[in-house]
């Protein structure tokens, strides 16, 4: 999913939405018992569909550069547009049409909205990178996105300016 979002130059928050959509979908819908190969296909299909939905949510211009047939081809599905569209409907239904829930990306932007100066912008960009890395660790999904964002910002400050942290608490 990460490679797909990068290859198609999708909006920054897309990957966070994708992970949120898949996690929320699997929280309300169980996968029937499949063989290992089938589970891989189902998860790839969910990932491809979640990318398609999240990309459209994040940026209206995405619909011009990303089509369901392209998503299906990238995911290796020969059924094409119909399969992605059918799963898109099921996923949106399972999410009860609530696509705009805040993500760690949203909270990093919110918490650093009034940051000014080069140092603060460096902290913001590193915090985004740290929040992105949290998506690679399944254990981080149990934490609220706001907590992931705050931790990312704090970690970024400690990494970039460790002596500033010591002086500001004294």
From TrEMBL:
Q: Which residues form the Cyclin N-terminal domain?
A: 4-99
Q: Enumerate the spans annotated as Cyclin C-terminal domain.
A: 102-163
Query: InterPro entries given for it?
Result: Cyclin, Cyclin_C-dom, Cyclin_N
Write down what this protein is called. Answer: Cyclin N-terminal domain-containing protein
Query: Species name for this entry?
Result: Zizania palustris
């Amino acid at each position: 999913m990460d490679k797909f979002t990068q290859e198609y130059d999708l909006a920054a928050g897309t990957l966070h939405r994708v992970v949120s959509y898949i996690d929320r979908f699997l929280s309300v819908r169980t996968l029937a018992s499949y063989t290992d190969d089938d589970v891989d296909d189902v998860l790839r299909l969910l990932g491809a569909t979640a990318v398609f939905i999240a990309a459209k949510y994040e940026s209206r211009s995405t619909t011009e550069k990303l089509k369901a047939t392209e998503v299906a081809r990238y995911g290796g599905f020969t059924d094409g547009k119909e399969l992605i569209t059918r799963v898109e409907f099921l996923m949106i239904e399972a999410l009860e049409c609530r696509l705009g829930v805040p993500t760690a990306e949203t909270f990093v932007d919110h918490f650093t909205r009034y940051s000014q100066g080069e140092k603060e912008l460096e902290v913001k960009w590193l915090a985004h990178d740290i929040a992105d890395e949290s998506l690679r660790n399944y254990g981080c999904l149990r934490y609220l996105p706001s907590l992931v964002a705050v931790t990312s910002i704090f970690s970024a400050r400690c990494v970039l300016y460790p002596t500033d942290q010591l002086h500001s608490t004294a």
